[in-house]
Known about the structure:
Largest sheet: 3 strands, antiparallel
Mean pLDDT: 88
Number of strands: 3
Order of helices and strands: HHHEHHEEHH
Shape: globular
Helix content: 40-55%
CATH superfamily of the domain at 14-114: Winged helix-like DNA-binding domain superfamily/Winged helix DNA-binding domain
Strand content: 5-15%
Structural class: mainly alpha
Strand order of the largest sheet: 1-3-2
CATH architecture of the domain at 14-114: Orthogonal Bundle
CATH topology of the domain at 14-114: Arc Repressor Mutant, subunit A
Amino acid sequence: MRLTATDLREMNLFKYYRLVRKWACKTYNILDADLELLIYLDCKEHFTRNDFIEGTYTFSWDKARWERLRADGWIDTWRHRNRTTIKYSVFKTSYKAKRLITRMYNIMLGEEDMPITEASKFYKNKTYTDKVYNKAIDDMIKDKDR
């Protein structure tokens, strides 16, 4: 069965996307563009460095993005090149990235709530922006239609 635009609208999938994205970025210490690029790459399952470069065309230029995502454990090598039969390495998103993306989907679908404990980095009332986001999180949790 193929989903249609109406199906997605009825599921309210993107209703709280911005809030969930901001929560994920602050909690996991990752940039918005990096997170969205990881979602794109996760859809590809296995990718090359050229696929990564093609995926970055719609984002702001960041020369260090590739190395940062690899060093922080968001991208793993699936198959190393060997210079004879395999001309290039193939990569995949790490378990850490897959878990984050799955958790975001679960939160957007209402299968899981965002953590609202004091231990959560995102749920600290230090600044005005934090208070606004906390109010939005409370409203999202109370929303029965998500």
